[in-house]
Amino acid sequence: MFSLGFTFTCAAKPIITIFTEQFPPYNFSNKGQLQGINLDIVRTLCELSQVECKFELLPWARAYDLVQKNQLSGLVSTARSAEREDLFYWVGPLVSSRTFFYRLRDNKHINPTDITQVSAYTLGVVRGNIYEGLVESIGFQQDKNLLKVAHHYEYMNLFFKNKIDLILGSEFALDYQLQQFGHGGKEVVKLVELPVNTLQGNYLVFNKEMPIEIVERFNEQLEKLKAVDNFDAYRHRYVQ
């Protein structure tokens, strides 16, 4: 029997589609192989929960849309917020890190010292990303000082061409992003931390029509996995 996002094998074992995006080191494609800290954790949870999972890499906005439409589907990694709370079932928290604004090292004239000053400069974000609303709440405006793009590659390219002043990056993710542009991190300077008090970390989310027993099984196995070493073994695969 087959319907969009709702597939069973002959043994009536559900096959769950887990959507994800290119967001190293949490989830990303490396030479065609999907991996990452949180993706590896979720893959283990699928095995421990005795659920067959298939993973699909998509742009964030499309993945976020599809998980709300397809019954047997999930999305990793998803930041938890009040606005999203009722849209999904939540499994987590998984692994996350603090987020900062960065500038190019040579641009010494760009030097905000607190969060009230960053909106005096230009910034690029991924459209629909959780950071979009956060930066707008501190003064960034589209078509004024905020450029919204479909993928982080677009604003990173503009950043290194000096077309925008600032980028956002998590402490774990930024080095991976810079490496994709042939940089090692010395070209950028960490500035002001973006307050994320309204967020509760990265999660695996499930469509609200997912059978609740599957959601509970995943959360139970997550707690057991976390109790081993707080995910250190998974973290150390990608972050030293």
Automatic annotation (TrEMBL):
Protein name in UniProt: Substrate-binding periplasmic protein
Domain Solute-binding protein family 3/N-terminal: residue ranges: 15-240
UniProt organism field: Pseudoalteromonas rhizosphaerae
Domain of life: Bacteria
Cross-referenced InterPro entries: Solute-binding_3/MltF_N
